């Protein structure tokens, strides 16, 4: 039996080719982030990618929690839901289960997603619903005006940590991998092209895709990622992960990452001791390798890995749910409420 | 074989009691099903500890199941029991207080060993010290007789011991003249893949019956004829099952998928279990990682055009509170079912209580009005769930449905409704982009349009920040906030025009009006009916709609000299009535984790009649 929702979907399906530009995805609302905020770049890259996704605007829904990043849905001209703190992943899960036909996105931050919403975050990843999660990591609470976050570094001095933070930070990529995520990536607010390519891959991924985006909060944590994002320092401090390619970095492409046992170490390609052939070759299908690479995040003496850590296939939750429903319908027939009420042990009173 | 006398009874209350691992709930449920099929009216009360298998023989490990059945109208599980089946001394000790003077005890003598006597705190065996003289005591060595029935089967002694509940059941079937068929069929189905257990249980069940037939102990058997219920087709149903089916029926009549986001919690988990069975009815159940995710996922599903539901108990509602406020703000349909249990905190998970009324009506930050509906009997959970869904869909609002542990686990015969006659409650999704505004309201209901993702041209954003009237854009304007607060309140208040007026059972005016809500319906009804039979001027008002209250509640209250409000809390409805109607209503409150006894309510009424209250 078709529901009212089915009827709407049937009556509004068109085969017209989609002719969008980035502008079509901008809502009529004024964007209210602080001037210079990294969020602007993420919004722009997302809007630039959207016309190429082949998804009608009305089939997209952006769900967010609370925080600066969570204002995102107001600014994109799709369906949007600005939820409550930490629960975007849970709201999005319900939406996706009710409506697997939709392209569902979650926009969250390091406070919203890693702290108050940490539980929902890991459970979304293990279930592997086909949802795209963009986590804006600025290592600070912005909207509440500058307290340390679960990704802030030890020693961080903020309003709530005048003597420095004693919390050891989460590494979102490692947390995601530990929660059995099937797609884990990292992008930089100041590298638009790279971010666009990562977002495209994330959308194509069937299952939960998680992108941690380093985002500068120029008001409360300015420059937190400058060593990874600025021209002067980026090349020496970042290694881009590319599937099937050796891990080479440095301005002169003269350094690489080699595995010493299970530990990645930096080697020079100049001194003749090692060549590209000795380097670690990235394989985004290798779960074990993904843990090693993500673990480089908090290690000194190795560059920060950026790119796709892992992209593997695993059954998708809503598909499995639909499979069980069809199986039940096949086995027991379409449910008949009238019959159900009259089933079991009944008796007649004359 | 001695000829047994058969006596006819109008009604009887039996309590099965034993260790929580003794299968008393199972025996009670089987006895209930068989009794229902025989056409008795009935009401049941499972009464068990929170521990799954509490240490054997202890007082806190006692699990009981009470069934009250008869050929007359039965409204409660019985104030006291007439027959107590006690599998061990602890079961006797805990439940003796519930046994009427002169009532019968059927004791499993094998359970009364030194160890168990000591665990129950008996210095000497109560079966032999004369302390039970005012009761009729039947001593049956159930454990030994069970073992005897299975002696040529090669099964473990543990398995043998586990079958003894079927001996007790078979014996009770014989005493109350009930056929074994239904239980035989159930055993056959339940243990179809475990032939040993199936065979053992069948043998023991029959051995229990045969024991009744042949023993000299029982001289009398009893007959309880069918009740004169309204004509029609009946089945027995628990509150939790009725609630689940009510939600399913509502979703079907709304042409929507039912989405349940839930987290296991006693005593509401059975609703989740029940709904999980019906995937072929378009029911999607999602066991979330916690209570908050349960309600949040339901809100997400409602955003997508499903009937979003979350089921829980009081502690779960506490966790869901913020999300319920979100649903108030984004004005999406949502049904929150609270099968109340003893609180506060973890409280008494397996016991009943009515102490979440104020939480339901007022328990949110900000001005967050939510309609509240309460079921009054187990089968009424069906209608209440249907009604809660209807209101949620029509008014685009979260609705709280209150049930309780007694209603949820209790059961009664249910006149099966004609499904085809249930009203169509389909919502109208907005599809026309012309003039669409997310918060442009229906003039009558004040509901905003439901525009689901996937509809071209209706792309819009909703959220928990205050909305500008009509456009739904974020607004911090002071006047707008005040206006929206009042609009949301007005929307809920207008529901009062769309619900039936409250009706009084008994005279429309008089000395005393007893006002109740929820699961106390049967106890209050019994008390009031008996007082009226004694010629007293007492009437009963039972409220299904707690927010908004029906338009005529004030009018009704003002026609009585005194108002008594029995509640299983410290006075919550009474607070609402006093503040809203300025009436000197008086509460009668007992918070023991158990339903009221009708006699206690009667005695309060009598005190009031005598002017002592």
Describe it for me?
The complex is a heterodimer of chains A (350) and B (613). Chain A is α/β, with parallel strands linked by helices. Chain A folds into 2 domains: 17-242 and 283-336, 3-Layer(aba) Sandwich (Rossmann fold); 246-281, no CATH class. Helices cover 32% and strands 19% of the residues of chain A. Chain A has helices at 4-12, 39-49, 72-75, 88-98, 110-116, 118-127, 172-178, 192-204, 226-229, 231-237, 287-295, 317-332, 337-341, and strands spanning 60-64, 79-82, 103-109, 131-137, 183-188, 209-214, 238-241, 248-249, 255-260, 263-268, 304-311, 346-349. In chain A, the strands form 2 sheets. Chain A has an 8-stranded mixed β-sheet, with helices on both faces. In chain A, strands 8-9-10 form a 3-stranded antiparallel β-sheet. In chain A, helix 2 crosses helix 8 (192-204), helix 5 (110-116) crosses helix 6 and helix 7 runs antiparallel to helix 11 (287-295). The longest helix of chain A is centred in the C-terminal third of the chain and has 16 residues, at 317-332. Chain A is globular, with a radius of gyration of 23 Å. The mean pLDDT of chain A is 96. Chain B has 613 residues and is of the alpha/beta class. Chain B folds into 3 domains: 5-224, 3-Layer(aba) Sandwich (Pyruvate-ferredoxin Oxidoreductase, domain 3), CATH 3.40.920.10; 233-499, Thiamin diphosphate (ThDP)-binding fold, Pyr/PP domains (Rossmann fold, 3-Layer(aba) Sandwich); 504-609, 3-Layer(aba) Sandwich (Rossmann fold). In chain B, 36% of the residues lie in helices and 22% in strands. In chain B, helix 3 (114-119) links the parallel strand 6 (99-108) and strand 7 (136-140). The radius of gyration of chain B is 26 Å and the shape is globular. The relative contact order of chain B is 0.09. The mean pLDDT of chain B is 96. At the A-B interface, helix 1, strand 1, strand 2, helix 4 and helix 6 of A face helix 1, strand 9, helix 9, strand 11 and helix 11 of B. Strand 2 of chain A pairs parallel with strand 17 of chain B, so a sheet runs across the interface.
